[in-house]
Amino acid sequence: MRSLINVQTQLLVRRFLTSSTAGRWRLFCSSSSEEEMPQPSVLRHLTAKIKATGPISVAEYMREVLTNPVTGYYVRNNMLGPEGDFITSPEISQIFGELIGVWIVTEWISAGRPKRLQLVELGPGKGSLAEDVLRVLGQLRSVLSHCSVSLHLVEVSPALSGLQALRLTGGSAQENQNHHDPVYRQGLTSTGLPVCWYRSLDDVPEGFSIFVAHEFFDALPIHKFQRTQSGWREMMVDIELENPDKLRFVLSPSPTLASTALVQEGEGRSHVEVCAEGGVIVQQLSRRISEEGGAALIADYGHDGTKTDTFRGFKGHRLHDVLASPGSADLTADVDFSFLRRMAGDGVACLGPITQRVFLKNMGIDTRMQVLLRNCVDASIRKQLINSYDALTNPDRMGERFHFFSLLHLSRLATPPNTTPPEGLTLQKKTPAAPPVAGFTELSFS
Ligand code: SAH
């Protein structure tokens, strides 16, 4: 279904899509094989813990491996990019972040252009998406001229937050020496916007905010449950009986608090993964959006409550045994969007999930590509552009594996009330449609 967008938004999207500003090109290389780097201290820490208190849940295993403040995979590493363990859409092409920038501005306009706009990114990685979004905001400066915009980054990794600061502020951001302050780093972006770093969403100030989370929810710890003849049992991580330096999965012999609380009544699958932490974060987003206004855009690989065992590891762009050399590989699980929708509750409207291919095409990626190709004479860059477009949109690559899901203020999708016609006029028969949401509806520029 095509929908007409309002004239202002239409002009804005068109202005951006056809602009010739190209930013910087990112190179999308094939994977590099890396030497196996065992992380003995992580394994030692985990086995000592299991010996002391018994098998740990998969969620605790994931949390320790990924975000332990000393040894955590995300805390120590820069894992993103061709030389790392995995590559993400914002790293593949600047167009991705730019279209998200356009989405943010259209949602801000649809909310009635509030005077203050907090852009909040959860898990910003190398800061590429934020950088591309900021470039779009810079290009649309005149549209945002009466709005005070600030950037808020929720990042658990000191290594990555250092990279983000370098990229977004040219290294001028200052670390906060007061360790009790929830803002652990702050500065000004190269376009002069205030930017702050936090360890948790709880610490981000209240106020009209647009939240973006790209490949963030898949990194949060999941619990795994198996249906057995005696009911649901939680899958735990234990030490191998014959080899004390190896880990194995076991089923808890009796119900755990998590298996009792987290498996839905009437669940039809025989194995389920539940990301309780992701559920709590979505509840926070939902509360903030309903009370303070704004929207959230969540993009990740995932399913709508249909998949079972999706827990996996990535190292050097290849699948990696999740229990082998913990700390040396990324651990991830598909996002269950049906669970996020349930956790969001009735206080917000949920849109999606829709595939990345559909979202990007609805946002005008084809028009943007044509303009960039028209303005590009370098054959190798043209090839690069075409390859990255294919990586983002091809159904066999990221096009159908990744999905977009949005939380919106309830008023955003509400049908404008039918006004009583002045006396003498006939009653309007058609109810005016709610304004479309960019990306989730194909926009027509007529
Ligand atoms: N959004 C980026 C990076 C994805 S990797 C991109 O698409 O390129 C996941 C990101 O989330 C990393 O920045 C990681 O450090 C961060 N992260 C993981 N767990 C987190 C947590 N519990 N709290 C805050 N940030 C977290």
From TrEMBL:
* GO process annotations (BP): methylation; mitochondrial respiratory chain complex I assembly
Which Gene Ontology MF annotations are present?
protein-arginine omega-N symmetric methyltransferase activity
Q: Name one GO cellular component term.
A: mitochondrion
Which subcellular locations apply to this protein? Answer: Mitochondrion
User: What catalytic activity is recorded?
Assistant: L-arginyl-[protein] + 2 S-adenosyl-L-methionine = N(omega),N(omega)'-dimethyl-L-arginyl-[protein] + 2 S-adenosyl-L-homocysteine + 2 H(+)
Q: What domain of life does the native source organism fall in?
A: Eukaryota
What Pfam families does this protein map onto?
A: Methyltransf_28 (PF02636)
Major location, coarse class?
mitochondrion
Q: What class of enzyme is it?
A: transferase
Which of UniProt's keywords are assigned here? Methyltransferase, Mitochondrion, Transferase, Transit peptide
Q: What is its EC number?
A: 2.1.1.320
Q: What does this protein do?
A: Arginine methyltransferase involved in the assembly or stability of mitochondrial NADH:ubiquinone oxidoreductase complex (complex I). Acts by mediating symmetric dimethylation of 'Arg-118' of NDUFS2 after it assembles into the complex I, stabilizing the early intermediate complex.
**What family classification does the UniProt entry report for this protein?**
Belongs to the NDUFAF7 family.
Protein name according to UniProt = Protein arginine methyltransferase NDUFAF7
Q: Which gene encodes it?
A: ndufaf7
